[in-house]
């Protein structure tokens, strides 16, 4: 007799034992962790995993509403939204971990979250602490880089990187920490050495990172499509992540081109931040000049709260016998 188990909306399983009647399963499934989901996507498919950059709860909710299969928490966006500052190494572990934890746990059955870990925020003890906190926060994967601690956005000039030995120490610490904690969090090794030392040094650093046990490589700031394609070939079959920053250091590469080049993960750091800036600015300009924001009809509080789980929250209350929303909202 064939038993079919299907995963329904809201993460509930339905069991059909062949009789045509659906039963409540007496086996209980735990939600699969984000790291396991991400790892399976990497190892069991050859898809390009497209991750829109998100930087707060609302941008993450929009990515989830549109059913993206994974998301990326941008450090630049986190720094801009939580600190109101530029991406110059000002966000610390607490800022990054708190933001990542909130986003990664919005929906336990939601898409896995890759989060920026910058330099790891210090020496081996800080890197170990950062990795442990990201694991506990439910982050699925993170990238750690070789810029000096007082780092800057990878698409600005004047970057400086630490020695290869120091970089490998960061990665070794990350790998040992995740192994010690029996975590399958995806470790992404990023190098920013292109500006200062050139392409060959990047490949050398990434090969060493791969040999240390990093799961994925990230060469930051490609200057041409040819270079991006070459890196995939030089490191194959090791999976590479492409960071697409439009109007950044390199050419615009679409998801279609990246897939054809052989990249496995693609993040769009500014996918939410840049449109948010444009949208907020034009609305506030209108307020200033016309005395009204001009929000399109239909976009009232209820609609916006719905994006943020209004119905699920009301259901939790009703399921518990609460009457707080029995007359609607
Ligand atoms: C990927 C990145 O680390 C980020 O924070 O999103 C940034 C993006 C940016 O500031 O352009 C980076 O590329 O350094």
From TrEMBL:
Catalytic activity, as annotated: (2S,3R)-3-hydroxybutane-1,2,3-tricarboxylate = pyruvate + succinate
Annotated source species: Talaromyces proteolyticus
Keyword annotations of the record: Kinase, Pyruvate, Transferase
Family note: Belongs to the isocitrate lyase/PEP mutase superfamily.
Domain of life: Eukaryota
Protein name: Pyruvate/Phosphoenolpyruvate kinase-like domain-containing protein
GO molecular function: kinase activity; methylisocitrate lyase activity
Keyword Plastid among UniProt keywords: no
Gene3D superfamilies to which the protein is assigned, alphabetical: Phosphoenolpyruvate-binding domains
């Amino acid at each position: 007799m064939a038993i079919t188990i299907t995963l329904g909306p809201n993460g509930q399983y339905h069991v059909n034992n062949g009789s045509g009647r659906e039963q409540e399963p007496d086996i209980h499934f735990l939600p699969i962790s984000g790291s396991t989901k991400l790892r399976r996507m990497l190892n069991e498919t050859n898809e390009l995993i497209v991750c829109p950059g998100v930087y707060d709860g609302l941008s993450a909710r929009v990515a989830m509403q549109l059913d993206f299969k994974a998301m990326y928490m941008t450090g630049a966006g986190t720094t801009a939204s939580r600190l109101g500052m530029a991406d110059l190494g000002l966000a610390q572990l607490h800022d990054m971990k708190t933001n990542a934890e909130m986003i990664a746990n919005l929906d336990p059955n939601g898409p896995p979250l890759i989060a920026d870990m910058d330099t790891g925020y210090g020496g081996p003890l800080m890197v170990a602490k950062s990795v442990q906190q990201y694991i506990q926060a439910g982050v699925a994967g993170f990238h750690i880089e070789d810029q000096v601690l007082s780092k800057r956005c990878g698409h600005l000039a004047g970057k400086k990187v630490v020695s290869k030995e120091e970089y490998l120490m960061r990665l070794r610490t990350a790998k040992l920490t995740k192994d010690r904690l029996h975590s399958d969090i995806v470790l992404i090794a990023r190098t920013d050495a292109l500006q200062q030392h050139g392409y060959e040094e990047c490949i050398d650093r990434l090969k060493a990172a791969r040999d240390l046990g990093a799961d994925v490589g990230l060469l930051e700031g490609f200057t041409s499509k040819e270079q991006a394609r070459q890196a995939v070939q030089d490191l194959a079959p090791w999976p590479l992540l492409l960071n697409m920053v439009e109007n950044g250091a390199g050419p615009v590469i679409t998801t279609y081109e990246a897939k054809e080049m052989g990249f496995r993960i693609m993040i769009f750091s500014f996918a939410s931040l840049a449109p948010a800036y444009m949208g907020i600015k034009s609305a506030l300009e209108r307020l200033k000049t016309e005395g009204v924001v001009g929000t399109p009809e239909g976009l009232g509080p209820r609609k916006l709260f719905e994006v943020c789980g209004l119905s699920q929250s009301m259901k939790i209350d009703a399921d518990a016998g609460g009457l707080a929303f029995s007359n609607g909202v």
